[in-house]
């Protein structure tokens, strides 16, 4: 699940699982474990994750942020479903004692698996069985573990995503103060072609993607710098017009203000 900044009274432990490096975030109510994919799967998979809510809790509200990814999720080993890319912050109540497993797919990778356009998945949650490209593909059997099932689907999948879109997203992330027009020139595409390719691959246009990337960059810098950064400097560094612009955009995509998030980062550093 697309978690908000893992800050506050949480502990973080690094380790190594069978697939790769693992990170564990724990609070009194929740344990969230994230495992990196093998090199073979890293083209399509951001991570494998498991979230467990302590049975002593009545419920836990998970705060999810837009990050251009698609998650395949199973709740208490039930039938898996697909959570498409959200375009705004989402608050999901989870009952105590619940275990959720998921596989987070990179931008565009879902086209290898699903017989649904990226636009159709935007801001939606649908049963996996309804959107599988070939639910009875040879050698692909439903598994009790959603992690294993998605791995088998990816190894079978033949349809290719558009690798140029991932490169374009990476370029936006690395060139925070550049415009979509700059990206169009960099890719040697017209603005119309740029938008067509983005919408086909991830369901949204490059301008919205750029806005999300800037917010994600700001959140990352707030966290890695433990909140010790002037908001006006952060706004300039991440390519916002000014601090007010950054405040509006972070509020739009996270439901929080930069001041609140900076305070959380300070708390995490002190804990």
Describe the secondary structure blueprint for this structure.
Elements: E1 11-16, E2 21-26, E3 30-35, E4 45-53, E5 59-64, E6 70-75, E7 81-83, E8 90-95, E9 99-105, H1 118-121, E10 125-127, H2 128-131, H3 146-156, H4 163-174, H5 180-187, H6 191-202, H7 206-224, H8 231-237, H9 243-254, H10 258-270
Antiparallel strand pairs: 1-2, 2-3, 3-4, 4-9, 5-8, 6-7, 6-9, 7-10
Helix pairs in contact: 7-9
Give a summary of the structure in a few sentences.
The protein has 10 helices and 10 strands.
Throw out a few tags for this protein.
271 residues, Immunoglobulin-like, 2 domains, 21% strand
The geometry reads as globular
In CATH, the topology of the largest domain is named: Immunoglobulin-like
Give the biggest beta sheet.
Answer: 8 strands, antiparallel
Structural class, judged by helices and strands? Answer: alpha+beta
Q: In which range does the helix fraction lie?
A: 25-40%
Task: Count the E strands.
Answer: 10
N-to-C SSE series?
Answer: EEEEEEEEEHEHHHHHHHHH
Distance between the termini: 24 Å
């Amino acid at each position: 699940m697309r978690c908000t900044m893992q800050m506050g009274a949480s502990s973080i432990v690094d380790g190594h699982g069978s697939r790769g490096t693992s990170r564990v975030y724990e609070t009194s109510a929740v344990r969230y474990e994230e495992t990196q994919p093998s090199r073979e799967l890293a083209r399509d998979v951001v991570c494998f994750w498991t979230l467990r809510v302590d049975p002593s809790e009545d419920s836990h509200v998970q705060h999810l942020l837009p990050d251009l990814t698609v998650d395949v999720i199973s709740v208490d080993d039930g039938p898996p479903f697909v959570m498409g890319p959200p375009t705004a912050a989402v608050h999901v109540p989870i009952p105590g004692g619940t275990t959720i497993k998921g596989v987070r797919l990179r931008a565009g990778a879902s086209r290898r698996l699903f017989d649904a356009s990226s636009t159709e998945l935007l801001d939606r949650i649908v049963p996996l069985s309804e959107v599988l490209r070939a639910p009875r593909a040879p050698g692909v059997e439903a598994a009790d573990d959603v992690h294993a099932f998605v791995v088998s689907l990816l190894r079978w999948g033949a349809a290719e995503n558009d690798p140029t879109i991932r490169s374009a997203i990476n370029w936006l992330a690395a060139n925070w103060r550049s415009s979509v027009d700059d990206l169009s020139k960099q890719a040697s595409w017209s603005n119309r072609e740029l938008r067509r390719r983005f919408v086909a691959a991830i369901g949204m246009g490059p301008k919205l993607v750029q806005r999300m990337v800037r917010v994600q960059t700001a959140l990352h810098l707030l966290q890695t710098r433990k909140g010790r950064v002037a908001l006006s400097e952060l706004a300039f560094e991440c390519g916002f017009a000014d601090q007010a612009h950054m405040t509006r955009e972070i509020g739009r995509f996270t439901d929080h203000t930069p001041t609140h998030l900076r305070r959380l980062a300070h708390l995490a550093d002190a804990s």
